[in-house]
Amino acid sequence: MVKLRAARPGEAEQLTALVLRSKAHWGYDASFLASCAPELRIPAEEVAGRRIVVAEDASAGRVLGLASLEGAPPVARLGLLFVEPEAIGRGVGRRLYRDALRRGAELGFRRLLIDADPHAAGFYRAMGALGSPGPRAAGDGDEPPAGLVRFEAAPAPLADWARAWTDGGPAVHVGNVAEYNAQFADASLDREQRAAHHYACLAAFYSPWPGALVLPGSVPPGWIERVGRVLEWEGVEVYDGLADGGPGPAPDAGLSDAVRVRPALAARLTSSGLPLVPWGRTAAFARLTGLPWRPRELRYESKSAAHGLFGRILEGGGHPRILLPGQWPAPNRRAAAKLLAARAGAGESTVLKSEHGVGGSGTTVVTPHGVRAAGGARAVLRGLPRGPLLVEEYVSGPAGPDEPRDLTYDGFVDEAGRVHEVGGAVMDVAGSGYRGATVGPGVVPAWAEEPLLAFGEAVGRELSAAGYRGWFDVDFVADGAGRLAPTETNLRLTGPSIAFMVAARLDALRGAGHFVRIADRVELGARLPGAALDELCETLERGCAELGAVFLPAIPTGAFDPAPWLGVLVAAHSREVLDAAEALVRAGALAVGAAFA
Predict the structure, then answer these.
(1) Spatial CA neighbour of 412 closest among 165, 122, 586, 174
(2) Is the pLDDT reported for residue 250 higher than 50?
(3) How far is CA 294 from CA 283, 299, 466, 545, in A?
(4) What is the separation, in whole angstroms, between the first and last Cα of the chain?
């Protein structure tokens, strides 16, 4: 085990010798090393001022590496980062680098400059540092010394909202997706909720750092270790297959009850001292945790109730760029058909909605042409799930093909009732079906950011006043006149929330400014054996790293479905690299599927 501590002035000579041994490891000749020696020497009186930290073998007490963090805010330099040759490749350099970024963020540094030996360039790229040709702002100092490669990173603390979400530390993540959906009796969901059990894999990302995962289905061995290596999680406990049958509740019972009937497991999770984070709140989760259960807290999960809430907020004024579409509840199918026919006759497109739905299920956009092609309004309705319908005005989208159409606001209400803003995201929606989302700096158009954040916060305040506690989002569509139309609230975690969690973790680990995209379904083309899935993930991870991106398999269990797919996360420091990484992942997934077809 390696521990980090501040270097001592009395170690200066020993540390200098370590630096020279580490430099010599790359095969430099004696004359070159002699020329470097004065610059690499560490005087005892500079140890504290250069903020030198050492990595020490905790059992043997031997120093294995060191790093310095030099300068004054806002710009720091990683003056030294050297590891004993015999310890190279054991994660010592990674620990020292991550610690330097963390300390830089705490001390108020916003840029970290690194002049690296060419042999170490691959290491810094793997750590997320960005190549830099030289100083880009006044005050950076002179050009990089000859023969060295300039990199830089942006130290960033864990986002304030992430600290408030789970106190900035690990949490127990309960993947109760099917349990949450079931309480609304959504007619658009299949009885077994197979997709919901797959989406429970997203429990790995319910906060930036899981302490334990509780999952209804079995997940591939080694999956969480693969994800944990990238996000640098340690000691994650996985309890999977809890609703796969066997003792306890039937396979389709709630996950929370499946835990509760296992007293030892329930006691371990609820007495761990870690926050318990579900996909969404349910009566069964309240029984498991001993929390009060007030089902009316979730009333705004209903699309008609959310529409009424939006209307009440807009009555108070202050949101001039928010447009509320008209919505008419249909007491029966005959009334819905009459409304739909009248709108189609007037040349208006219509959105038909169930009261509840997931990922666009239960929502259908119908054009006048679609009504005619189906043989009339009644014929359209016969193809929809049973249950009450809402008839809603369709909002035409932006004129430009590159302008985002579907936006979302994410936030949460803490136990004290305070609303925390997480941010805005752009969703990928085909028809009415959600396919993924992108978060990152500037992804929400500048014109939309202020009205989106202001209205999202206003919804959060109303939810807090209604007694709701937990994560929520507000979904919007953009019209062609620079306005946003709110369409629904989700009182639970969501796909975009997962992207925000990963962005917060990567920003703290690798430097600020990550774009993260969650893609719900990357088609595989064929079912893969477990070993082939591992090999595919290894190949995609390596390929993305070569682009300067990060790849994470988010939903691995879909790979074993009859129509196989994979849920993934990709991340990068630019939109261009993000797009390239997604294209690489989709092409690679189809290629390996074709080999097994």
Answers:
(1) 165
(2) no
(3) 8, 10, 11, 46
(4) 45
